[in-house]
Design goal:
Elements lengths: L4 E5 L2 H18 L4 E4 L6 H13 L8 E4 L1 E3 L10 H10 L9 E2 L8 H14 L5 E4 L21 E4 L2 H10 L9 E4 L2 H5 L3 E6 L5 H9 L18 E6 L10
Length: 248
């Protein structure tokens, strides 16, 4: 299945700049765009570049509406193992995004199922996502849409796989316990964005990149459903992540 835009960049640093370019292009076209962005090591370079642009006055993010992609269930913004806290510190605060424009995924809500439905309504009320910047997990997950996630899934509570919890523990350097459940924006919600930018770096993810982009979409590899959105998907890979792709 083809139709998506594939851009191969020589280095992680250049990939990060191109991802920041995609955000800037969206914001210049629509300053109050609703955007969702990921956590993790891969987007750090993009965030650093965007903050530099804010400080240089070449981009204004003050009107953007940011929707968080996912977080561990029961974690508040101030908890140690909170992805929302991480995003505030890595990007939202340095970039000067107003608190009133940050839509935190309701990980600590008393009734997370009802809150997940309300989160979907918040996105819809702003006309849907203009841009979704996403990463790719080793098991093919997008946000916390683990293997088995339906392509039309919405924001919901999910049980994390052992693999995802183990990777998360390494990410937090063992400083915080990783809950067995998370709340995540759904694959269907993400795929409705007007543009989706998938960023992946490193040879360790070359195999799952191949499965996601070149094999038939299947429940076992949630990211493989991204192929179905056609040219709305812009894939930005560094050279190391492409080693198992068929040469174009």
């Amino acid at each position: 299945m083809a139709g998506y835009v594939l851009e191969v960049i020589e280095s992680y640093e250049e990939m990060s700049v191109r991802a920041a370019d995609a955000v800037q292009e969206t914001v210049e076209r629509r300053p109050d765009a609703a955007i969702t962005v990921p956590t993790g090591q891969t987007p750090l370079g993009m965030y650093e570049d965007l903050v530099r642009r804010v400080e240089a006055g070449t981009i204004d993010l003050s009107q953007v509406r940011i929707f968080c992609l996912d977080d561990y269930l029961g974690q508040s913004r101030h908890d140690e193992a909170s992805l929302t806290r991480w995003l505030y510190e890595a990007f939202l605060i340095p970039a000067g995004i107003p608190e009133s424009h940050i839509h935190r995924i309701p990980a600590a809500a008393p009734d997370p199922h009802a809150a997940a439905l309300a989160y979907e309504r918040e996105i819809a009320a702003l006309g849907g996502l203009e841009l979704a910047v996403i990463g790719l997990g080793q098991n093919g997950h997008v946000a916390f849409n683990e293997p088995g996630s339906a392509p039309d899934s919405r924001t919901r509570v999910v049980e994390l796989t052992g693999e995802s919890r183990e990777q998360s523990s390494a990410y937090w350097e063992g400083e915080a316990g990783i809950p067995p459940y998370a709340i995540t924006m759904g694959l269907g919600t993400i795929q409705e964005a007007r543009q989706i930018v998938l960023i992946v770096s490193g040879e360790a993810k070359a195999g799952i990149v191949h499965q996601a982009l070149e094999e038939e979409p299947k429940l076992e590899v949630p990211a493989s459903w991204l192929q179905t959105v056609g040219e709305r998907l812009h894939v930005i890979l560094d050279r190391e992540a492409t080693s198992e792709l068929t040469p174009r």
